[in-house]
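Quick entry, no commentary yet.
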Amino acid sequence: MDEMTAVRELRAEAPAAERAPFLAGRDRLLREATGRTRVRRLRGDWRLMAAATAALITAVALIGTQVVDRGPDGVQPGARPGYTLELGSAKDLLNDAADAIAAGPAVTARDGQWIYVKTVETNETDDEPGPQTSEDWWPYADPKMENGKAGDDHSPREEYAFLRSLPDDPAKVRAKARAFFYATDKSETRPLHEYRALVAVLSRAYAYDPAGLAKVYRALATIPGVQAAEVEDAAGRSAYALYLRDPLSTYRDEVLLDPATYLYSGYRSVAEGGNGEWGKGDVELGGARLATAVVDEKGERP
């Protein structure tokens, strides 16, 4: 079981309630994605951040580490409701993020190594809503998770190979992503399927080729309706949120990006409309990725 599968199970004990017909779509996305007042910025503003990010990533490459640590041990969960500052279309953000990532270093691994991931999660449907911090180790090469043996789950090695295989055409990238994370619900629209598949790739890119990962961001930028916001994650940090509204859902499932690196940093599930249990803007589920690293043995920490 990997991080995204664990996210899906966060709601295992929750009551069905009247929104039960909408949970299938939410769970699909959450399963794939487990990890200052201002006006909407112009493209030029994003380019300044992209340039700074490229310089930061280059500096990290010179240091020679493959560890990404995004928070202290004593994390603080975001308030309920968490803050949300809408930025509008995510197209410019995603394209500039792609430029920054393409200019950065690769993260590589070899057979026999492990992927270390540390996360913090909050779940307001639990008796003890959090935060709950956990550490996981997954083998980089896991034949049981490859070549369709585990459905639409994939090993980190298979994910890395997928990124290396991507063409330049965003439409072809979207088609390959649809096949890689195939649809299991016939009611899922193509844009929602493509969005779900591409953010799943982002959330599982523990080892990646920068050119390939950048193509995923550029493909996401071509999906109509993908929006961006500035939010607070489960660790109390600022993050960029990506989302694509599902007209059948009363919840908004967000994929979070680190504002310094544009890499995947977590998720949130936010109530879109108020009811007796949740108010508009309430964060029901949230997760933040605190650190990732390639290590030599299971149980080893960076």
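second:
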Amino acid sequence: MKRMDYLTWDEYFMGLALLSAGRSKDNNTQVGACIVSAENKILSVGYNGMPIGCSDDEMPWEREGDALDTKYPFVCHAEMNAILNRSTGSLKDARIFVTLFPCNECAKAIIQSGIREVVYLKDLYPDTDSVKASKRMFALAGVTYTQYQLTGRDYVIHL
């Protein structure tokens, strides 16, 4: 008889997004993303961080202050990193699992890359223009988005 308590596909992929978020050096917001094909094959993962070659120790991580003294003009979001990190092939008709609802810049990249579905864990900023713009573009482009429903299951990884 087969084991019955295995992870569902959605648990597995959101788990990978959450695990990827653990790589972020951001002291306030850790975001992870996992892109999968229609056949449930992992195409890429990403997390929010500085661009390659920009030292995490030399770049700002602050949320407030002069623009160039904050993280905002520099950090590459998890969704963008996952899209840029794919090694081969197309993202057409793929799904992206992400721990935070995508901003408008990531929404544009998601749409342009051919991803057709966004599964997100949290929508912390639904009243911001950025998220409103994302939802408007997703609707116009036919990209669906659904909030991941926590199953309440604990899955512990000892490292």
